[in-house]
């Protein structure tokens, strides 16, 4: 697969996130539901390296790297997640809350790599307040801090 410069930047996040996912959940046996899959780079990397099955849900997806399931809809708390083993999201911003609520309601593991940019944090709140709120949704949510491109990022997850 050929990537342009912007894709190479995204690929570094996809690799770090996918490697975390595999070390925590063992991807090759899972049906992955990727929320906000955008260009498909994360899915492509996970399928090539970890041989997992995945579906993207994103109304704006232009995933062309692999020709498999892409659902062109918004994800919501009511989205049917029953056929999937895990919900994941890479920089899904405002959708993070819905993913966490859906995963908890449906007793599904999840992992979300949060975007710390102010534009991505809902309701003009601080990143730290947003994190506290998301963590308050369930006592089962864990946090992992990782470094990507010399910056610290947080992954919220539940096994």
Structure overview:
By secondary structure, this protein is α/β, with parallel strands linked by helices. It has one domain (5-158): Vaccinia Virus protein VP39 (Rossmann fold, 3-Layer(aba) Sandwich), CATH 3.40.50. It is built from 4 helices and 7 strands. A 7-stranded mixed beta sheet has the order 3-2-1-4-5-7-6, sandwiched between helices. A hairpin with a 2-residue loop joins strand 6 (142-148) and strand 7 (151-158). Helix 1 (5-25) packs across helix 2 (41-50). The longest helix has 21 residues, at 5-25. It is globular. Mean pLDDT is 89; it is low at 1-5.
In short:
With 159 residues, this protein is of the alpha/beta class. Helices cover 32% and strands 23% of the residues. The longest helix has 21 residues, at 5-25.
Succession of helices and strands? HEHEEEHEHEE
Helix/sheet category: alpha/beta
- Report on the biggest sheet: 7 strands, mixed
Shape: globular
The third-level CATH topology is Rossmann fold
How many beta-strand segments?
A: 7
Secondary structure: helix percent: 25-40%
CATH architecture: 3-Layer(aba) Sandwich
Number of folding domains? 1
Rg: 15 Å
Q: What's the average pLDDT?
A: 89
The total count of helices amounts to 4
Strand order in the largest sheet: 3-2-1-4-5-7-6
Distance between the termini: 31 Å
Taking pLDDT < 50 over at least 5 consecutive residues as the criterion, the unreliable ranges are 1-5
CATH superfamily, by name, is Vaccinia Virus protein VP39
CATH class: Alpha Beta
Strand content: 15-25%
């Amino acid at each position: 697969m050929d990537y342009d410069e912007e894709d190479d930047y995204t690929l570094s996040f996809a690799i770090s996130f996918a490697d975390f996912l595999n070390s925590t959940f063992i991807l090759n046996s899972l049906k992955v539901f990727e929320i906000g899959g955008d260009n498909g780079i994360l899915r492509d990397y996970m399928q090539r390296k970890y041989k997992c099955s995945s579906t993207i849900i994103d109304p704006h997806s232009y995933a062309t790297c692999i020709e498999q399931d892409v659902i062109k809809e918004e994800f919501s708390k009511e989205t049917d997640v029953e056929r999937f083993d895990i919900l994941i999201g890479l920089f899904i911003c405002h959708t993070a809350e819905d993913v966490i609520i859906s995963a908890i309601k449906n007793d599904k593991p999840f992992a979300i790599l949060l975007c710390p940019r102010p534009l991505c944090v809902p309701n003009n709140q601080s990143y730290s307040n947003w994190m506290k709120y998301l963590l308050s949704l369930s006592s089962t949510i864990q946090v992992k801090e990782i470094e990507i491109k010399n910056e610290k990022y947080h992954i919220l997850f539940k096994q």
